[in-house]
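Structure request: HK97 family phage prohead protease, Alkalicoccus saliphilus.
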Amino acid sequence: MKELRIAELRAADPAGESSLVLSGRPIVFGHSTTINAPFGQYIEVIQRGALDDADLSDVRLMYNHDMNKIPLARTPKTMHLTLDPAGLELRAELPDTEDGRSVHTAVVRGDLSGMSFAFKVPKGGSHYDAKTNIRTISKIEKVYECSIVAFPAYPQTSVEARSAIENTWEKLKAPERQEAKIKINQILKRSV
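Returned structure:
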């Protein structure tokens, strides 16, 4: 199932003919983040190497995941994705259209600074530990799109991710769930 995540975006110095260039790092390895789900929050980490065999051949750049609009860029022609030890780097040349100019201007001004991405984790590509409340993603099968978003928050994950975690969570008896929540809160307080 497709999942969404948020990361940082910035305007880049123009290179070549296009002056509407954006760059960012939509996927960062080894950093934990809090994901909101219907049953509560959990911590997620994407491991280094999770994108090693991922399909990055047909990724689109959108604004706010709006599939009703024309993409702002697309791999491999107007958007380039580069893997490095830190994660996935993006460089996109936006079209000289009203949407392209508006998005670019908003990024330059700092009004837009977040990116979200949609991806698919294959079966066995992640592990959820209910006791620590941590989901570790070790393999991403495909990145579908990256989006420039107005609010850099984690608005949703896919039904598959929620379902997999909810099934594990529901297997715990109510007292075990409460204990797990208490332990998670204690761990989170220590890390602050």
